[in-house]
Amino acid sequence: MTAPFGDRSQPGSHLSRWLALGCRSLTQVRLVKFNIMESPIQPIQSPIQKILFGSPGTGKSWRIKDEIIPGLGIDESINPENVIRTVFHPEYTYGDFMGKLMPLTTKEKKVEYSFYEGHFLKALAQAYKNILSSQPGEKIKNVALVIDEINRGNSSAIFGTVFQLLDRDKNGWSDYGINLSEVELRSIVSLIGFVISGTDGDFPTYKYEGKGYAHTLEKHQDIFSKLNIKIKSDKIIGSCIRIPPNLSILGTMNTSDNSIYFMDSAFKRRWDWEFVNWDDSKPPAAEYGELDETQWKTLIKNLNEFIKKNHKLIRGIEDKQIGYYFIKTPVSADKIQNKLMFFLWDSVFNRDKQPLVKLLGVETDQLVTFGDFTKLHNQFIEKINAGEWRTKP
């Protein structure tokens, strides 16, 4: 393991540079220390929507906390509100994720209901709030929603309509929007800084951050327009609630637990995936490079023919075919290894790995884990495209 300050025996090491500063003031030493330390992690410009998966204890949560979140430019010690964490479990519901009404008994022994925003609604509101509080030319602060053990809950039921928001366009906004119930809208309006001040006819009036004149929500359209939200008569027009580009969603999943709750193919497709091997080893460098649209379509055509040829060993063949938009072009080697190959391993050939064993020309005990499969990604791409499997029994 490399020492914190490099090789202490070398004249140019960090330590020797520190020792050479003995006659300087403490302030000067601090300045030099700052200059010679490694540069911080560079901020990530586009949103991340990724599930880290692997065996238990491989450091998936650590990687999110110590590498990915700092890479988003989030310093939890300064802005803890920009990281919202939750853990899925069998009793976790859409209400826990989005928000729900909860009964509360008052001192007068009366039961009142209050709306408690869920983890997703908190994260969405915080991302909206950061957009509104940013100044022209200033980088908008990122927000991370972290979901540990994402497959220990019924993800389809938990996400509900939020599932529609997971497709992102090239600018990072959701491709498609959803609507909110009135109580969800009131909650998010409050979370982003609006305070009820009075009424105007049948509608409540609000001040934004307690400043200026009180208006109905419709008359605050200039503020909502920054979030691509349209308001009329104190209601959202159409399905215009979308995840903004400064909100990343990160999940972890133990591959040994992936049968606790089934994740359907449509849900899986909307995420990037990252495999974390038990020994932290990485697959060899890709020999095929980044695939353009033509190369990707050729690969998918060949791959679907390979899947169809082995239909007797695959349950539900129609759902196991792969569409051209499974990964958006250009297609990186990282997405082929983590997203495409994991789908084949976990969903297509999950019952019988023999088609992959024969394709790759290896022994059965050489293809036992997904980690084994990823290390053969170059051979996999080469052999699928070569098409020799078409003539083999």
Question: What order do the helices and strands come in, and which of them pair?
Answer:
Blueprint: H1 14-19, H2 26-36, E1 49-54, H3 60-71, E2 83-87, H4 94-98, E3 99-105, E4 111-117, H5 119-133, E5 143-148, H6 155-159, H7 182-191, E6 194-200, E7 203-208, E8 211-215, H8 221-224, E9 231-232, E10 235-236, E11 247-254, H9 265-269, E12 272-276, H10 293-309, H11 317-320, H12 333-348, H13 354-360, H14 370-374, H15 377-386
Helix pairs in contact: 5-7
What report would you give on this structure?
This protein has 393 residues and is of the alpha/beta class. The chain folds into three domains: 12-41, no CATH class; 49-178 and 241-247, no CATH class; 282-390, no CATH class. It is built from 15 helices and twelve strands. Strand 9 and strand 10 form a beta hairpin. It is elongated, with a radius of gyration of 26 Å.
Can you summarize this structure?
With 393 residues, this protein is of the alpha/beta class. Helix content is 34%, strand content 17%. The chain has three domains: 12-41, no CATH class; 49-178 and 241-247, no CATH class; 282-390, no CATH class.
